Amino acid sequence: MPEEVEVGGESSVVVDVLVPVAVDVAYSYRLPPGLDAAEGDFVHVPLGTRETVGVVWSREVLGPGRGSNLKSVIGTVDLPPLPPRLRRFIDWVARWTLTPRGMVLRMAVRAPSHAGPERVRIGLRRAGPPPARLTPARIRVLDTLATLPDASKAELARAAGCSTGVIDGLIDEGTITPVVLSAEPLGGTLDPDFAAVRLEPSQKMAAGELVAAVTRRRFGTILLEGVTGAGKTEVYFEAVAAALRASRQVLITMPEIALTAQALDRFAARFGARPAEWHSAVPSRRRARVWLGVASGDVQIVIGARSSLFLPFANLGLIVVDEEHDPAYKQEDGVVYHARDMAVVRGRLEDVPVVLASATPALETRVNAEEGRYGHLVLAARVGGRSLPALAAINLRKTPPPRGSWISPPLAEAIGETIGRGEQVLLFLNRRGYAPLTLCRTCGHRFQCPNCSTWLVEHRFRNALMCHHCGHVERRPTQCPACGNADTLVPCGPGVERLTEEVEQRFPAARTLLLSSDAPGGAEHIREQLAAIARHEVDLVIGTQLVAKGHNFPSLTLVGVVDADVGLANGDPRAAERTFQMLQQVTGRAGRGDKPGRGLIQTWEPDHPVMRALVSGDGERFYRTETEMRRSAGLPPFGRLAAVIVSGGDRHAAEAHARALARAAVATIGAWRPAEQRLDVLGPAEAPLALLRGRHRFRLLVTASRAIDLQGFLRAALAAGPKARGDIRVDIDVEPQSFL
Ligand SMILES: Nc1ncnc2c1ncn2[C@@H]1O[C@H](COP(=O)(O)OP(=O)(O)OP(=O)(O)O)[C@@H](O)[C@H]1O
Ligand SMILES: [Zn+2]
């Protein structure tokens, strides 16, 4: 019984409990006699007519007679308390993003509610002699099983390229048998000295700085910038080793799930065991175990996607944000936050160093380093004396591809040469599917998404037209729905599927592989494919941005960028920076092994500053001009930006609300803008994606000097505006990365 509660029940303990729903306040509850809960504890509380689990955010003793009108806490929950630093982080993120605190809490506590035994896995093993009748499919299954022991039925069928029926037949004959496998361990003991690499002098210097930062145990952000293939990973692994030696936990974030998978293997090679993995594709029971292990300190290292920032580390010692420039670090739905920026905040609250690693840092990060807010370590050359790939532009105006194809003669020639030498080629096109647009040759009808203002993308393998924004799918008809003519529908423009078709026609002898995030089989399948590329079981890889970053394919010597202009056309202020980073990354996959590499960039605009910077290798100049442009326009990081997106099912209602909000915001400016400072409200304007998932969208943009309290202003402006009624929704995006 808590000591503050007198037996007579005169004074009482009141706790403020934050619940994981869309509210900002923590509700007050009375602790009934006999029950105690401290700050951070999980408790059952009544909420309206139901019961929910929340977290005690604060606790106080009230004088006699007070608090008696409050509802009581129902009971405590057997989970480790949420550490105070994580609670402060949740408060911070909520304030920064203008999200109700309960929503941020929800990201942090969703996992442990799924605790329980992990589902047993059933794997297959060879059990008896081959069957009397051996078909080609059966032989494939048995061969595949020899290399994939304990595979599940679905995995084996996919890897062997047959139906599960073939496997069932082999089970019936007793050749294969299913076995129950125990849950995978969370990760073995990591050994900081398991397989240390001999670092080169420049790596050694950088690693020394990082190790010193880990040993100091103080917050500080360090940009680790090194050209592609400079060996940055090995460098930050030294910092990880230092944290392990000091018995402190490490968080390494990756922008994409496919990258975490590859990182796990590399990690195991260096530290003797795999760290824990954390992202949406990890089964929920397993995620619950990781969450609990992180809270108890048993899990030493987590490699995860952005949501891993909200894990309850008991004893964090280091955060590494790999590929820190990657736009995928921005979460665009639910709580809208930038994981790289929030990693720096978490590091500050935990008082631990944060390492941002990239070959092409975000302009913001560069400026932070130049202005001394971040430390800056540079690896100027590739390891092992390897040279960076030689880059050249292919002017599509001068040497266009033949009609109906996408590979220009110079690129085709280079591909032929490279494969002829027994080396690998990567063709990069950042467009999923077969064709980005389908139209009727007779009447000009274009297939549009019924819910979004976008064209439907043809996916030929699935025989479907799909919307990449809302997931709408329809069958590709044989007749035009507008004019009724048969066989008049034509695909326009290339996607990776169409490019693959061309490649297979033009290089029939090459072993070709299409790597796309929407292929069936998910992360595990992609991991197998990446490994097959690294083992040189493939000559020609066609891929979207999935292959652009982080990977190390030793035999790859030619990267062809099929359409370098794709990302430049939209009105995004970061379009040039993004394109530069993406092309630098993808061409940086070439020449990482023993043979030198090259990159050929197909473009209609060879004189564009981005292409010039790439080809001349003068990234510095590009960054300088971009930085000056941002500075003179007052754009981030030299000014602040927030987008307010008003949406609703009814176009007029959404527009009217956006206008009223804009008026209220403009009327609020005066009170928030000190003399000499800039604070402006622009719009509303119809969003470029005017219709998304059936909702009409209008955007306001708020721009301000750095010194302005942008969040304070937004809060005041929203409070002064009309209440959102009906299905009208107002979403705030602080420091937007997307302007759609
Ligand atoms: N000191 C070293 N000695 C030998 N090999 C090394 C050394 N450092 C790194 N390597 C190897 O060089 C390759 C490239 O290193 P790494 O992947 O760390 O580069 P990176 O800078 O992270 O590249 P990117 O930014 O392009 O992903 C890897 O195969 C790595 O194992
Ligand atoms: Zn859609």
TrEMBL record:
<comment type="similarity">
    <text>Belongs to the helicase family. PriA subfamily.</text>
</comment>
<keyword id="KW-0547">Nucleotide-binding</keyword>
<dbReference type="InterPro" id="IPR001650">
    <property type="entry name" value="Helicase_C-like"/>
</dbReference>
<dbReference type="GO" id="GO:0003677">
    <property type="term" value="F:DNA binding"/>
</dbReference>
<comment type="function">
    <text>Initiates the restart of stalled replication forks, which reloads the replicative helicase on sites other than the origin of replication. Recognizes and binds to abandoned replication forks and remodels them to uncover a helicase loading site. Promotes assembly of the primosome at these replication forks.</text>
</comment>
<keyword id="KW-0862">Zinc</keyword>
<dbReference type="InterPro" id="IPR011545">
    <property type="entry name" value="DEAD/DEAH_box_helicase_dom"/>
</dbReference>
<dbReference type="InterPro" id="IPR042115">
    <property type="entry name" value="PriA_3primeBD_sf"/>
</dbReference>
<feature type="domain" description="Helicase ATP-binding">
    <location>
        <begin position="213"/>
        <end position="379"/>
    </location>
</feature>
<keyword id="KW-0639">Primosome</keyword>
<feature type="binding site">
    <location>
        <position position="443"/>
    </location>
    <ligand>
        <name>Zn(2+) 1</name>
    </ligand>
</feature>
<dbReference type="GO" id="GO:0006302">
    <property type="term" value="P:double-strand break repair"/>
</dbReference>
<dbReference type="GO" id="GO:0043138">
    <property type="term" value="F:3'-5' DNA helicase activity"/>
</dbReference>
<dbReference type="Pfam" id="PF18074">
    <property type="entry name" value="PriA_C"/>
</dbReference>
<keyword id="KW-0067">ATP-binding</keyword>
<feature type="binding site">
    <location>
        <position position="467"/>
    </location>
    <ligand>
        <name>Zn(2+) 2</name>
    </ligand>
</feature>
<dbReference type="InterPro" id="IPR041236">
    <property type="entry name" value="PriA_C"/>
</dbReference>
<dbReference type="InterPro" id="IPR041222">
    <property type="entry name" value="PriA_3primeBD"/>
</dbReference>
<feature type="binding site">
    <location>
        <position position="440"/>
    </location>
    <ligand>
        <name>Zn(2+) 1</name>
    </ligand>
</feature>
<keyword id="KW-0235">DNA replication</keyword>
<keyword id="KW-0378">Hydrolase</keyword>
<dbReference type="Pfam" id="PF18319">
    <property type="entry name" value="Zn_ribbon_PriA"/>
</dbReference>
<dbReference type="GO" id="GO:0006270">
    <property type="term" value="P:DNA replication initiation"/>
</dbReference>
<feature type="binding site">
    <location>
        <position position="452"/>
    </location>
    <ligand>
        <name>Zn(2+) 2</name>
    </ligand>
</feature>
<dbReference type="GO" id="GO:0008270">
    <property type="term" value="F:zinc ion binding"/>
</dbReference>
<dbReference type="GO" id="GO:1990077">
    <property type="term" value="C:primosome complex"/>
</dbReference>
<dbReference type="InterPro" id="IPR005259">
    <property type="entry name" value="PriA"/>
</dbReference>
<dbReference type="InterPro" id="IPR040498">
    <property type="entry name" value="PriA_CRR"/>
</dbReference>
<dbReference type="GO" id="GO:0016787">
    <property type="term" value="F:hydrolase activity"/>
</dbReference>
<feature type="binding site">
    <location>
        <position position="470"/>
    </location>
    <ligand>
        <name>Zn(2+) 2</name>
    </ligand>
</feature>
<feature type="binding site">
    <location>
        <position position="449"/>
    </location>
    <ligand>
        <name>Zn(2+) 2</name>
    </ligand>
</feature>
<dbReference type="Pfam" id="PF17764">
    <property type="entry name" value="PriA_3primeBD"/>
</dbReference>
<keyword id="KW-0479">Metal-binding</keyword>
<keyword id="KW-0347">Helicase</keyword>
<dbReference type="GO" id="GO:0005524">
    <property type="term" value="F:ATP binding"/>
</dbReference>
<keyword id="KW-0413">Isomerase</keyword>
<dbReference type="InterPro" id="IPR014001">
    <property type="entry name" value="Helicase_ATP-bd"/>
</dbReference>
<feature type="binding site">
    <location>
        <position position="480"/>
    </location>
    <ligand>
        <name>Zn(2+) 1</name>
    </ligand>
</feature>
<dbReference type="GO" id="GO:0006269">
    <property type="term" value="P:DNA replication, synthesis of primer"/>
</dbReference>
<keyword id="KW-0238">DNA-binding</keyword>
<dbReference type="Pfam" id="PF00270">
    <property type="entry name" value="DEAD"/>
</dbReference>
<dbReference type="GO" id="GO:0006310">
    <property type="term" value="P:DNA recombination"/>
</dbReference>
